[in-house]
Design goal:
The complex is a heterodimer of chains A (118) and B (112). Chain A starts with a strand and ends with a strand. Helices cover 0% and strands 47% of the residues of chain A. Helices cover 0% and strands 57% of the residues of chain B. Chain B is mainly β. The chains are: A mainly beta (118), B mainly beta (112). The interface between A and B is medium-sized, with 32 and 27 residues.
Chain lengths: 118, 112
């Protein structure tokens, strides 16, 4: 697609329910990132994928959070037994993932999923 | 803790003035990037500066990098109301793969 696509754009769920957030990266981008942003705050790193593997998932807050990526493309972030503190905007980004001269390349962001746990 | 810390947290200026935002980081980096965010949604890449560069320009944007002080600044010249947004720095680390770590951001408001 033309850009990074995230769905749904908004999700309201009841405490204790599971949710799945989807990210469709730019075609050909091998690196994919998930971040979380609470209201008025910075971006909290959750996990990043290189291809289908996750070299760094150190930011996942608890074992209720998991993510997978299949076919080197679409990624799903799953939150089990949601809590009110999980309410935030979840942002996905992708990049070429090429280490051009040892550099990270520009990341392209989706519009995010606003999750509200009630 | 955040790898990058921007200051000030919030900045309010008049249209036409220059805006300067600073970013400090803690570990060695291979590059530093600046992003802009409107309305709390997706971020847009502005500029990337390599660790061996000291200054870079793009239109009304000027970025400096001082690796000895582990700091960077973003200068927006002749600001416009449309520049109102949050600005974040992001760092990539040697050996960190493609992981980008973002700072806490500066909220810029440009008033008419």
């Amino acid at each position: 697609g033309a850009g990074v696509s995230q769905s749904p754009s908004n999700k309201v769920t009841e405490k204790g329910k599971d949710v799945e957030l989807r990210c469709d990266p730019i075609s050909g981008h091998t690196a994919l990132y998930w971040y979380r942003q609470s209201l008025g705050q910075g971006l909290e790193f959750l996990i990043y994928f290189q291809g289908n593997s996750a070299p760094d998932k150190s930011g996942l807050p608890s074992d209720r959070f998991s993510a997978e990526r299949t076919g080197g493309s679409v990624s799903t972030l799953t939150i089990q037994r949601t809590q009110q503190e999980d309410s935030a905007v979840y942002l996905c980004a992708s990049s070429l993932g090429l280490r051009v001269g040892g550099l990270n390349t520009e990341a392209f962001f989706g519009q995010g999923t606003r999750l509200t746990v009630v | 803790s955040q790898q990058g810390e921007e200051d000030p947290q919030a900045l309010s200026i008049q249209e036409g003035e220059n805006a300067t935002m600073n970013c400090s980081y803690k570990t060695s980096i291979n590059n530093l990037q600046w992003y802009r965010q409107n309305s709390g949604r997706g971020l847009v890449h502005l500029i990337l500066i390599r660790s061996n560069e000291r200054e870079k320009h793009s239109g009304r944007l000027r970025v400096t990098l001082d690796t000895s002080k582990k700091s960077s600044s973003l200068l927006i010249t002749a600001s416009r109301a449309a520049d109102t947004a949050s600005y974040f720095c992001a760092t990539g680390r040697p050996g960190g793969g493609n992981k980008l770590t973002f700072g806490t951001g500066t909220q810029l408001k440009v008033e008419l």
